[in-house]
Amino acid sequence: MDLLNPSDRQALAAWYVRNRERSEALFDAVRPGAYEARPIPLRNPVCFYEGHLPAFAVNTLLKRGLGEPGLDSDFEVLFERGIDPESQEDVPGVPSLWPPRDAIRAYGAAADQAVLDALAHRDIAAAGNPVLAGGLAARTVLEHEPMHQETLLYMWHRLPYDRKVRPEGLAVAWIGAEPPPRRAVRIPAGAATLGAGPEEPFAWDNERPRHAVDVAAFSIDVHSVTNRDFLEFVEAGGYEDEALWDEEGRLWLAEEGVRHPLFWELHRAAWFWRGMWDLVPLPMGWPVYVSHAEATAYARWKNRRLPTEAEFHRAAFGSPSGAERRYPWGDDPPDAARGNFDFARWDPVPVGAFPGGASAWGVHDLVGNGWEWTSTVFAGFEGFQPMASYPRYSADFFDGKHYVMKGASPATAKELLRPSLRNWFRATYPYVYAKFRTVGNA
Known about the structure:
Elements: H1 6-28, H2 46-65, H3 73-78, H4 101-121, H5 136-158, E1 184-187, E2 190-194, E3 211-215, E4 218-221, H6 227-235, H7 247-256, E5 264-267, E6 270-274, E7 279-281, H8 292-301, H9 309-317, E8 370-377, E9 402-408, E10 423-426, E11 434-435, E12 439-441
Parallel strand pairs: 8-11
Antiparallel strand pairs: 1-4, 2-3, 4-12, 5-6, 6-7, 8-9, 9-10
């Protein structure tokens, strides 16, 4: 992409507008009385994010990149930082009175006009400016917004149903039947390429540099662990068996009283799934969404383990020929036949529902239907360098407490579906759309 070419600039602007329209629809889905609510204690209030998204664009592209003064310095400080805090006390910028939505929306409209003008007319790829070179700041803004849209959706998932505006013509959830029998396939030893190379037009700093890792042979589940599978763990007393949990997990269970996945609810002795818009009888063929701690405990119960990041790559992008693919299914771009991603659905679908998205080894749903936990502690690759457009993006979380997730969820934008993309959360963070599968040594 040549960012001096008007058609390429128009493509970036169209992506920006797409992002902003989706965000507006998400905020419109929250009733006014919930606008300052915090449906997840370790997140900022709903209103914060409607200000954060345009403020991030102004701070990153206009101020840090182009050296402009910005539009509203108070807003650009108040709404600056949108990363998960460590605790409620660490939530940034919590004023006694938030600006009204009309003021936040007016700021967003002014920011949109300024950003679109910059995308159309300014030198947004200035080679001598490390923040702008190669379109770095512009692409940082464009990928940042859909990442937050996923955050918004799992926040909205925790809102009471009467505090959300149900979409018209909402499709019935794809419940499916009983899940397929559990089975695993053997992946032979080989190399896995992690990280993004120089040909990738944009990557977050934790994705670089690209490097190869030798992976020993292993076996991996063909399908993600389902609600049916995990129900067996719950009914067998898995949450009460301390030997299955590490110290952090045991403390979490004790302090929070956790006895089942967050997305499950028990009503009159029957299990239900807390969907975005409805409670539905627990769909046994859907993947179970759990924290890393829960996934690890289940894997121990099965005398197996979670895959490493490199093992995930080998299973997802490797092939018997030794060649590596852009996507599990090959090099064709993502589409609706390949998986549950790109905001196509509000909830998961049955495992194996997209056979056209299977990897060369016949492993299903490695991209879509939920992120996949790995056992790899989140850290920079050797040679890591913070990115000039967002230097605090990754390094603040190289603390040994966060774990890499790979793949994609129903709320992951198609533009983010590259092999090198890495997500991460703490082991006891249960809110994210995250599933898992187990591996064993072959």
